[in-house]
Amino acid sequence: MEQNAFKITLESNPLISIKLIPGHFTTINSHVNYYIDVAELKANALVAREAARNIAMPYLAGTHVDTIVCMENTKVIGAFLAEELLQKGISAMDGSGGINVVTPMSSTDGKYIFYDSEIEWIRKKNILLLTTTISSGRTLSSALECLSYYDGIIAGITTLYMSSTDKAYREVHALFTSDEIPGYSLTTTSQCPLCKAGVKLDAIISSEGYTRV
Length: 213
Description:
By secondary structure, the chain is α/β, with parallel strands linked by helices. It is built from five helices and 13 strands. Strands 1, 2, 3, 11, 12 and 13 form a six-stranded mixed beta sheet that branches. Strands 5-4-8-9-10 form a five-stranded parallel beta sheet, sandwiched between helices. Strand 6 (105-106) and strand 7 form a beta hairpin. Helix 2 (45-56) packs across helix 3.
């Protein structure tokens, strides 16, 4: 599986890339023919800083950000993103004292919630939502539901990778999209062409990684 992996690189910055592993994969509610590996973007400080600089660009001129909400272990990028916005964006001019970077926790019923000590950074605040990937839209929907519950104001949504099928949500800024991946396919389990062809699953995938089956 890994021997067939390859990378695609951001045209504007060769330091930013994602690794693609072709195969037959399942998520909680869909089947897909590529595993999108963005681990280096989240874990390597140099690469995360470069990614943050690129992510910040659409928000520098006209978007005030109070809080960055980081989903799926994107807090390293989120910290660099806050630094970039405070240095160059309009958030640096309002004298508010900074940008908070937080991650919600998951409750026992699978809902996202914030600690009481963090709610003041969410309620009536301008939120920049940062995610790893948007494929089925499940995580994004849950995050938006959470922020709505706490009266957060969505100032922007950005992701490292997005399936083109999810562009209908709202304006989402993505470093990479499935349009750049040859033959990309995301389907329900019942409609999966690989299943219909009798191809066995390679792995179960999530935003954290994959587990072979």
